């Protein structure tokens, strides 16, 4: 169970965000930032039926992450917090999770996803894509710990 | 960009679900299934501040996944769908994403998370934990493609 697990990127993210720290803390705060998700052609068949979904989870590798920090001051607070209670990238396994809005599909193999609400750095290796399904993922009674009161109350 | 990426499990998931296919398609359909998330003690400091959150994303390795299927008939439909438009585990990179409810923290190093809404198989290697933050993750206008009408309308 402690052996290494190996993944191979299925694509790469293209974004106007090129400098570490250039992005918004979350894509929801950047509805106008657009980008593309290039899925390598050998995986394009897996994109079948994706166009009916408005929002996608992108799972990706924080390729510019530095050394692990188990405690870290997050963007929205002045106190250090446990790395698993924040979204910062210097994690034991630097896997990123973002919600993006799917605005179109293009490319010669229908393998380029056009998206907005982008908060991911240009050149980031893509690991997986999953559809956002509120019926699976959303809960009504969510408590957000140290973030309580730090983001707008209807969120 | 196509070189392998290597991760090491940060813990292991303990669950009453032991047979592949035994679990519910999603934890939201199984509010009474409980389990524990054992985080290896060397990462326990990263759990600081987690107790204030009611729900967590668990990212994990589908360790019993089989060969990749780019098209697959999902649980909730009779037609094959693209693998990136469903949540099935035989993915190019078999990374699972589940929302669980955090009900307690125990263990000599405060490293055992007690959770419900469990849909993960016993023995699954854990890769990452992130807090669920509706203000970051939830959207109001989500279209769910082929799943439209297949799950209850308030979801």
Characterization of the model:
The structure is a homodimer of 155-residue chains. Chain A is globular and about 50 Å long. Chain A is an all-beta fold. Chain A contains one helix and nine strands, in the order βββββββββα. The relative contact order of chain A is 0.30. Chain A has a single domain, classed as YaeB-like (Elongation Factor Tu (Ef-tu), domain 3, Beta Barrel). At the A-B interface, strand 1, strand 4, strand 6, strand 7 and strand 9 of A face strand 1, strand 4, strand 6, strand 7 and strand 9 of B. Strand 1 of chain A pairs antiparallel with strand 1 of chain B.
Percent range for β-strand residues of chain A: 25-35%
CATH topology of chain A: Elongation Factor Tu (Ef-tu), domain 3
Structural class estimated from helices and strands of chain A: mainly beta
Number of domains of chain A: 1
* Order of secondary-structure elements of chain A: EEEEEEEEEH
CATH-defined architecture of chain A: Beta Barrel
Total beta strand runs of chain A = 9
CATH class designation of chain A: Mainly Beta
Gross morphology of chain A:
globular
Count of DSSP-assigned helices of chain A: 1
Percent range of helical residues of chain A = under 10%
- Interface with most residues: A-B, 73 and 72 residues
Looking at the chains present, what oligomeric state does this protein adopt? Answer: homodimer
Calculate the mean pLDDT score of chain A and round it.
93
Radius of gyration of chain A: 16 Å
Spans of chain A of at least 5 consecutive residues whose pLDDT stays below 50 are none
Arrangement of strands in the largest sheet of chain A = 2-3-8-7-4-9
Distance between the termini of chain A: 37 Å
Largest sheet of chain A: 6 strands, antiparallel, barrel
- Under CATH, the homologous superfamily of chain A reads YaeB-like
